[in-house]
Design brief:
Pfam families: HAMP (PF00672), HATPase_c (PF02518), His_kinase (PF06580). GO terms for molecular function: phosphorelay sensor kinase activity. This is Two-component sensor histidine kinase. It is found in: Cell membrane. It is a multi-pass membrane protein. By secondary structure, this protein is α+β, with helices and mostly antiparallel strands. Among the domains are: 50 residues, no CATH class; 184 residues, Histidine kinase-like ATPase, C-terminal domain (Heat Shock Protein 90), CATH 3.30.565. Helices cover 48% and strands 18% of the residues. It contains 17 helices and 16 strands. The protein has a 5-stranded mixed β-sheet. A hairpin with a 4-residue loop joins strand 13 and strand 14. Helix 1 packs across helix 9, helix 10 packs across helix 16 and helix 14 packs antiparallel against helix 16. It is flat.
């Protein structure tokens, strides 16, 4: 074949094929055929016996894990004390005691006694008992959180087809393994079982339903193709021949996919099958004949004689061929390594007209396109980050404005014009500093000045009952920060931390030489908080359980301000910076804010050339 340029086009695959055919494939095929004819019959039977035993052992391991999961459900199914409590339809204290003293410890005991990662969902007919569950975001796998359990009412699943089609109950026997809900999406399978009143086996009354979800990868952990030989494959197929799990040779896996156009020579493999009785699924092993016939010593001896005679000639020719192609391959590998390191500027060029020339052109074009896409993604992400920061900045809740206006109204009512005027001026100053002409990043000097303006407003309201002291290192005022990181915490202290009629707040700012960052601390001597409350405000609490519904709106707002500041700092400066809390009830609270050292612009330096920080409010 001659391309339009007139040069002979000899494909790279043809070159390799001819070389392997002449130098390797022909002699190996000849002597391999003789050896296989002699030994294949004697070793096949023995190897098949060994492989069959291995496959049965794998099947038994799978059955053991499934039986172990069923034993977990037996702890609830055969517990005769459980129906007595679940059939008590009494609300209030009785329902609370049943849940806290019996159900929660029992469910935890079941989930903790498993070596597998499980997610147990219990559906109870008794709706006087509360639901307890974690509200995971849609599209996420709850099982990634590890072993846990959820408690729901039975009416959540009564209209679902998999529950409606569940077989009639037989005492201790009705257990079904099936993929329901989102199990298929996340590679799970669920054990389904009714929870019945077992005190009378002749009259089994349904009191609930059990669903225990387990990853298929854990159930089929023993399905390892390495146990039966190199180049083999183990496959677990469900209804309709759909593959549920597989392990082994990647090329064989691809070729054996339903609808695949890749060639799959079944004659080169020996297939063994076992049925998984609990699931009705099929466990199949595809073993290359080369594994079964590996103990062909006569073939090795005969092949060795021929190989010693041909090794000299093959070595000389192979060296020249490999040297020719290795140089070209090395250039491709070099470019790919540079691409992997993020450098897309390197280009390669080959003389000739073969596959290497096509690869070089494609790689060069790929580098140009990738470089262009990286630039576009960088600009897009930069705009997205700016938009997210502006959104968080706009979400700061200035609920103190309502209280300030109320205070102004009260001062006007009682004729305290001077204080009214002072508070109005302080409020105007506060919002002038907060708006900052729409800028998100301001100098630390302006941030402290804005916090002082807020304190001046509150000083009119509280008078001598509040005392705020600033202890700021003058060296840090020349650096920059995102705005409104101090005022929300001072506001939280004045809103929630009062202990008696007085409160003392200290604002500290210093340079941390060890980490090369700036650290602020807002310390109060107020009522303090419990560790659980600190975790909830920091956004590190456990999820949305039964008790989460009782959180008050004021508590949510209190924690929101902290998370807002923390999110803004992390969004702008990175995950190494942010807010941390330490508090002890009856002693007080310390809020630590860490930001990087950010020099401010020359305009800011000229504007605030005589900054002085450290006054007491």
């Amino acid at each position: 074949m001659r391309p339009p340029g007139g040069k002979l086009f000899l494909p790279f695959g043809v070159k390799l094929f001819i070389s392997y055919l002449v130098l390797i494939i022909v002699p190996i095929f000849m002597f391999g055929y003789i050896a296989n004819t002699i030994l294949v019959n004697s070793y096949r039977e023995q190897m098949n016996t060994n492989l069959t035993g291995t496959l049965k052992q794998i099947r038994d391991n799978i059955a053991y894990k499934m039986e172990d999961t069923q034993r977990l459900s037996d702890l609830l199914y055969f517990d005769e004390s459980l129906p007595l409590e679940l059939m008590r339809y009494e609300e209030g204290w009785v329902s609370y005691q049943t849940t806290k003293k019996l159900l929660i410890p029992k469910f935890r005991q079941v989930t903790d006694s498993s070596n597998l990662r499980i997610w147990m969902s219990i559906y109870l007919k008794n709706e006087t008992l509360p639901e307890i569950y974690n509200a995971d975001p849609q599209g996420t796998d709850p099982l990634t959180r590890g072993n846990h359990w959820d408690l729901y009412h039975l009416n959540r699943i009564q209209n679902k087809p998999w529950y409606a089609d569940f077989p009639p109950e037989e005492y201790g026997k009705t257990v079904v393994w099936r993929q329901v809900e989102d199990d298929g999406m996340f590679g799970r399978i669920s054990l389904l079982r009714r929870l019945v009143d077992t005190r009378d086996p002749m009259k089994l009354e349904t009191i609930g339903f059990i669903r225990i979800s387990v990853y298929l990868s854990e159930i089929f952990r023993s399905v390892d193709a390495g146990k039966i030989g190199s180049g083999s494959m183990l496959s677990v197929s469900g209804e309709g021949g759909r593959r549920m799990f597989a392990s082994g040779e990647s090329g064989l896996l691809l070729a054996s996919e339903p609808g695949s156009k890749a060639e799959f020579d079944l004659g080169r493999y020996t297939m063994l099958e076992e049925t998984l009785p609990e699931l009705g699924w099929n466990l199949a092993a595809y073993v290359p004949n080369s594994v079964i016939e590996k103990d062909t010593r006569k073939v090795n001896l005969l092949t060795l004689i021929i190989c010693l005679l041909s090794v000299g000639l093959i070595s000389i020719v192979a060296y020249g061929v490999s040297r020719f192609f290795s140089r070209r391959v090395s250039k491709v590998v070099s470019v790919l390594q540079r691409f992997q390191q993020g450098d897309f500027h390197k280009r390669i060029h080959y003389r000739g007209n073969d596959e290497f020339t096509i690869i070089a052109g494609s790689l060069n074009k790929l580098g140009e396109q990738t470089e262009h896409l990286i630039q576009e993604v960088y600009v897009t992400n930069l705009k997205k980050k700016e938009a997210e920061l502006e959104t968080l900045q706009a979400q700061i809740n200035p609920h103190f404005l309502y209280n300030t206006l109320s205070s102004i109204s009260r001062l006007a009512k009682f004729g305290q014009v001077d204080k009214q005027h002072q508070m109005v001026m302080n409020l105007a100053k506060f919002y002038r500093l907060s708006l900052n002409e729409g800028q998100t990043v301001i100098s630390i000097y302006h941030e402290i000045e804005q916090a002082q303006a807020y304190i001046d407003i509150q000083q009119v309201k509280y008078g001598e009952r509040m005392e705020v002291h600033f202890d700021i290192d003058p060296q840090i005022v020349k650096f920059m920060t995102v705005k409104l990181i101090l005022q929300p915490f001072i506001e939280n202290a004045l809103q929630h931390a009062w202990r008696g009629d007085r409160i003392y707040i200290r604002v500290v700012g210093r340079m941390d030489a060890g980490t090369g960052s700036i650290v602020f601390q807002i310390i109060d001597d107020g009522s303090g908080m419990t560790r659980e409350r600190v975790e909830e405000m920091s956004g590190s609490g456990s999820g949305q359980g039964a008790g989460a519904a009782g959180s008050s709106t004021s508590q949510q707002r209190k924690g929101y301000g902290i998370r807002n500041v923390n999110d803004r700092i992390k969004l702008y400066f990175g995950s190494d910076y942010g807010v941390s809390l330490y508090s002890r009830p009856g002693i007080g609270t310390c809020v630590t804010i860490r930001i990087p050292v950010q020099p401010r612009s020359r305009g800011e330096q000229r504007q605030n050339g005589h900054d002085h920080i450290g006054r007491t409010g």
